[in-house]
Structure formats: structure tokens, C-alpha cells
Amino acid sequence: MSAVTAPVGFIGLGIMGEGMVGRLITEKVVGTSDSNPLVIWNRTGSKCSAFQSKHPDANIIIKSSAKEVVESCGVTYCMLSTPEASREVFEDAENGVLAGVSEGKSIVDCATLAESDMTRMSKEVISKGGRFLEAPVSGSKGPAATGSLIFLCAGSKDVFDEVLPNGLAAMGKASHFLGEIGRGTRAKLVVNSLMGTMMAAYSEGLALSESVGLDPSKIIEVIGQGAIASPIYAMKGPKMVAKDHAPNFPLKHAHKDMKLASDMAKEAGVSYSVNDQAELVFRKAREDADLNVADADFSAVFEQIYKDSTSTFAKER
């Protein structure tokens, strides 16, 4: 892993962004001298101040707009939480990302958006003389904080080669270049839709186990010993049984990705019925005001399964 010798920008210090940008500092990719400051901006400015306070020895500069970050840096990473937030920050005519792009500027966008969004953003950046790398990540809050993300990249191969040994190496355990713009998003939606269907099925399995008198801890152990073992099952299972859905990957974001994957499948002419059914369960959970789990971890779809169940255990739980 190598340090950079120029300022690097980072826009978006939310659940994912805070961990990612923290890795740039702790791995000493940036912020080690006056020549390579980390330049940051977030829609909620207090997060930038809090991050700066956590790293008093690092050279961190807080800007008042996304535009100023891009103008100050050769490479700027963006990690906004939703397509709406991304569009707002990117397209703001006076203070947005695009407003700061000029000849030679590079944007690395790590959000999960629709393919059409990534394509539009890439074209707009290139039209102003900049370069664009689509780089959505596979992973949640924990992997972001430990540098264990998987980057699914497309677009500018030159930018990919430049950031691979420093920024991507610090923030991820693997990085893949998949070709033309859009392919990173396609790969991310395949991965996240599969993860959502796995969580929906796992939730049903655990709910059935408890409802027929089986010890859920023993079932989690059994699952972990067989061919269907999965890190996500081992990690989430005990918390689900304990009704602990502290957010690592918010349910509303999981649902968003599953819906985008469903749309992608329809456009591609592929039957995606399992995801589509799971997406409906996630949608129901997201929109249920009584459950109020949209901002909880996506494992909270478990609560929707139980709400829709009529077993004695479900009623007494």
C-alpha cells in the first residue's frame, strides 16, 4: 500500500463513508503532511468536525461544499447513502460535485445507484474534462471500518490503476475492474439482491424453527456446519433471535438495491421471481409504520416475517 503525494477528497461521512475515510487516515494514505491533506465534506457538517477530532494528528481539511472538495483535489471519492442524496450533491449547480470538475479531475463514486445514474454522471464528468470511476462496494459498516470491502469498478481503467495501490487497498480487501461503465453497478445489484433473498429465507427458517419448538441457537449451529453455511447467517442469526437490529446495512437501503435489481432483471429479460418476492417482504417491512424498521439493519425483515405469522410463538414473542 502506498501513500499519495497530493490532496485527496472524500464526500459523504455516513454509515459507510466514515469507516472508509477513516481507513485512508489510519493506513496513512493521506493526511500525513501538508502536501497530502484529506479534504472532506458532508451534508451534516458536524460529522466532519467529529471525524477531525478523532484524528488530531492528521492533516484534515473541512470544506464548505462538495464543489470545493473537488476543486482542491485530483481524486475525490464520493459515498452518498441514496440515489436522491447522490443526485442532489452531484448536480447542485453552485456547490455540487459536477460544479467542481475541470480538466484532469477524477471522481470515484462508491454509492449503489441505478446503472442509468452512473452512466449519466460519467458522461457529465467526462464532458468537463474529468475522469470517472464507478466503484460501488460489497460490504457494510463493519467491513468499511476494517478495510474489508470489495470494490466493483468500471469506467476509467487509468483511474482504477492509480487508486488501486493506495485508496482502494486501504479501504478494501479486493478490487475488481469489470470494464465499461455500468458493469460495477450491475455486479453490485446481483450481489445485494442475492444477499436480500438469503436474509428473507433465513428469517423464515429461524421463525419456523422457533415456532415448532426448536432451539434457534442450535439451528444456527447446524446451519453453520453444513453446505449452506454463510458468514452472514453466523453473524446475524444470534442478533436476530435477540431482536438486535442495530444498523450495519439499513433495511431501506437493502430494499432499494433489491428493487433496482428487479428492474435490471426485467430490462434484461431474466426471470427474477425469488428476488421479486423477497423484495415485496422488504418493502412491506420498510413501509410498516408500526414496525418502524426502515432505518434498522436489514436483518429486521425478520420482524416482518413474525408479524405476518400466526403461530403461538409469534403471538407470544
Low-confidence stretches: none
Fraction in beta strands: 5-15%
Cα Rg: 21 Å
Number of strand segments: 9
Largest sheet: 9 strands, mixed
Mean pLDDT: 96
Query: What is the string of helix and strand elements?
Result: EHEHEHEHHEHEEHEHEHHHHHHH
Structural class: alpha/beta
Helical content (DSSP H or I, runs of 4+):
40-55%
Number of helices: 15
Tertiary shape: globular
N-to-C terminal Cα separation, in Å?
50 Å
Note down, in words, how this protein is organized.
It is globular and about 65 Å long. Strand 8, helix 8 and strand 9 form a beta-alpha-beta unit. The longest helix is centred in the middle third of the chain and has 29 residues, at 183-211. The chain starts with 7 loop residues before the first strand and ends with a helix. The chain contains 15 helices and nine strands. Strands 1, 2, 3, 4, 5, 6, 7, 8 and 9 form a nine-stranded mixed β-sheet that branches. The protein has helices spanning 17-26, 45-54, 66-72, 83-91, 97-100, 115-127, 141-146, 157-171, 183-211, 216-225, 231-241, 251-268, 273-287, 301-307, 312-316, and strands at residues 8-11, 38-41, 60-62, 75-78, 106-109, 131-134, 137-138, 149-155, 172-177. It has 317 residues and is an alpha/beta fold.
Task: Draw up the topology in text.
Layout: E1 8-11, H1 17-26, E2 38-41, H2 45-54, E3 60-62, H3 66-72, E4 75-78, H4 83-91, H5 97-100, E5 106-109, H6 115-127, E6 131-134, E7 137-138, H7 141-146, E8 149-155, H8 157-171, E9 172-177, H9 183-211, H10 216-225, H11 231-241, H12 251-268, H13 273-287, H14 301-307, H15 312-316
Helix pairs in contact: 1-8, 9-11, 9-12, 9-13, 9-14, 10-11, 12-13, 13-14
